[in-house]
Amino acid sequence: MEIFKNFIDGEWVDSLGKDVFENINPADTREPLGAFPRSRAEDVEAAVSAATKAYTRWRLVPPPKRGEILWRAAELLRARKEELAREMTREMGKVLEEARGDVQEAMDMAFYMAGEGRRLFGQTTTSELPNKFCMSVRAPLGTCGLITPWNFPMAIPAWKMMPALICGNTMVLKPAEDAPLSAWHLVKILEEAGVPRGVVNLVHGFGEEAGAPLVRAEGVKAVSFTGSVPVGREVAQACAGSFKRLCLEMGGKNVIVVMDDARLDLAVEGAVWGAFGTTGQRCTASSRIVVHKAVYREFSERLVERAQRLKLGNGLDPTVQVGPLINEAQLRTVARYVEMGRAEGAQLLCGGHRVSDGEKAHGWFFAPTVFGDCQPSMRIAQEEIFGPVVTLIPCDDFDQAMEIANHVVYGLSSAIYTRDVNKAFRALRDMETGICYVNAPTIGAETHLPFGGTKQSGNGHREASTAALDFYSEWKSIYIDYSDRLQRAQIDT
Ligand code: UN1
Description:
five-stranded parallel β-sheet; 2 domains; seven-stranded mixed β-sheet
């Protein structure tokens, strides 16, 4: 089995304890993809100190030069897209077409942030005093601790690394233990693109063993975490003591509202993609569909018919539409929610069981599942399941749809299908989410718009777009007095 390493201070190294863990294909658990270092606090410490040392030089590299490195990384991603996508499908199961999209998203972010190297705009403004010049510039933060999930194993590390780099920060990345290979490839590419020694460090391992020490490390000035609410809460508590800057991207219980004037074929198509794309394992997945009662029956029949026809299997097979769940624990969680839904009185319209015929016996496959006649308060309609399970909730009218849509603790993404422009704009105004769609499902955010959510989906920050620059830099306001005398603001009026 191939042995992969950590990347610390420009060297590929084992963990100090020499422990490893295996990366396994969730579509066929007989296939290991390699052994990765099971790192602990001592490895994290070495990585943080390398990043802190490298920061003294990297912060002085002109941003356009940093941008050139990101540009080269983007070119390498483009050149290797197919090979990287295949490895990604093998390590975490998403179908090849979607894995290509994941690499594309990382590439988009690299190109986008490379361009930011020649912008990173601040403000120049007036002064209330004569002969005085005022401006604001972005200053980097220092070493960043980046903790990323397995569901977008290249895109999400890139969302964090590219803006952090262009702003002049150094970093330690701790990718999810379920998909370490894609992060490894990304770091390898950044090395090849010319990122100087120590600027990017990679430490593999588990949350409590490697993630927690990274969050707590004194040298780490900012933490960006994508994952679950309970872990996000722990991360926030660990950061609170030293007031570390923290970006949290957590769960969602994203809604699609289907009004009685919607194009139903389009709404069904969108629901299938939003609910079952990436096997429902997106924080943006469409897991609730609120349907106007006038079209409820027709919509649910058409959705069920489509869900039942989806082909499950190994994502490398181009005819497969839905891959496996990431691991056995996730399969159990999804099965538990299905039991819960039944017990709560929701109507199981299709799916609801593991699929293990033929080759699928070796993977973590679960049938696309639709629950009908759900009450908004049911746990399956309130809690993030992170699997191919969607809940249908009937509604009487637009106002009730909005009430149901907002009646969750999350606020990441929402959508409405309607042909009435007034309803569309009212929904855009009233849906309490960070991302809203009209006539498209809740997934598919692009890298140049702010990404993130309200309520328990986050802590007020946004990733991607120039919003990411706001997280990875600090404003420095500068006043230059060329009057040759003491001028007192607010006093010498
Ligand atoms: C995630 O699921 O954590 O908007 C990110 C989307 C993707 C990103 C999802 N571009 O669905």
